[in-house]
Design goal:
Helix content: 10-25%
Number of strands: 12
Order of helices and strands: EEEEHEHEHEHEHEHEEHE
Strand content: 15-25%
Radius of gyration: 18 Å
Strand order of the largest sheet: 7-6-5-8-9-11-10
Shape: globular
Oligomer: single chain
Length: about 325
């Protein structure tokens, strides 16, 4: 459902306990979805300011400004960053895991249609929209409040090729007849990975909606045992996986191909260079893709417990 300027969406489906609030990407993005934010420097101001708060189906939404950047957070104004936006440079991509997810599109044979399950503030899909003018984008979000906040505070595009669907993610995938080259599933929460991440049936649904040569991208950033269960379910459906950590080690981007083939480094690098040349990227896309690692959760979070501890909040 495309949202024309000035219109407010109405929910097509209520939450059925499927993907619901914790399916937030994709990569994808913020991404809507949660991942590590940009590095904090000594110049970061001592205070952050809440500029908007609102209850929503996904929890209480906080829009916070800090150090010249704007953050979307759920339930806690000092919580993890769902999306990060630079009001002075809307095309910038401040979040490490979003840049990595964009580079992971090089695992696709082609990039013409992209699905994000869980909008967040649209970091991933908006970056794709800006960089690749020919790509058709679908984003599924269960909360109309999230969509409204993303449009008002985070520069969410309004365009016929950027379609936002108010729906439960599982229901949307089950009812859709479309197929995509990439599906970004950003399933992180501060507490746990949802049951669907451990359900092979979920990944089988997604696999059926991929075009030949298409990929599923999954962002993981939770407890090791939860991640390993998700990786086992993904591997059972997609076969060999390719995994990339973010520079701080807090997130793991997992790539599975519809054809079950693991791409060689040379194949991926060749497509990455072509993708970088074809797009209008605000950052070095090629440098955004590091070395893959073993697909098991043996990482150590750089910030144990709650992975983001911000400065005091100014609620004035």
């Amino acid at each position: 459902m495309y949202l024309p300027q000035g219109n407010q969406p109405s929910a097509r489906h209520p939450s059925t306990g499927g993907i619901a609030r914790t399916i937030l990407v994709a990569l994808l993005v913020a991404q809507g979805g949660l991942a590590s934010g940009p590095a904090r420097s000594a110049e970061t101001p001592a205070e952050a300011k809440v500029i908007h708060t609102e209850p929503a189906q996904v929890g209480t939404i906080f829009v916070v400004e800090e150090g010249g950047l704007r953050y979307l957070r759920f339930d806690n104004p000092l919580g993890d960053d769902q999306s990060v936006f630079d009001p002075e440079d809307p095309a910038a991509v401040p979040m490490d895991y979003i840049r990595l997810a964009l580079a992971c599109l090089a695992h696709c044979d082609r990039v013409e249609r992209v699905l994000m399950i869980g909008l967040g503030a649209g970091s991933f899909t908006t970056a794709v929209f800006r960089a690749l003018p020919g790509v058709q984008i679908d984003a599924v979000e269960i909360s109309p409040v999230v969509v409204r906040v993303a449009a008002k505070w985070f520069g969410l595009p309004r365009d016929p090729r950027y379609r936002i669907h108010l729906a439960d993610g599982t229901t949307f995938v089950d009812e859709s007849h479309q197929r995509w080259d990439a599906v970004f599933l950003d399933a992180y929460t501060e507490v746990d990975t949802p049951d669907l991440m451990r359900a092979q049936a979920t990944f089988l649904r997604l696999k059926k909606r991929l075009r030949p040569g298409g990929v599923v991208l999954v962002n993981l950033a939770v407890k090791p045992d939860e991640e390993n269960r998700a990786l086992a379910s993904l591997g059972a459906v997609f076969g060999p996986l390719t995994c990339y950590p973010t520079p701080d080690g807090d997130n793991l981007l997992v790539v599975g191909r519809a054809d079950g083939r693991k791409q060689t480094r040379e194949q991926v690098r060749g497509r990455l260079s072509a993708l970088a040349s074809a797009g209008k990227w605000s950052f070095d896309l090629v440098a955004g893709l590091g070395q893959p690692v073993a697909c098991s959760s043996r990482r150590r979070f750089s910030r144990p417990g709650s992975r983001r501890r911000g400065p005091p909040i100014d609620r004035r």
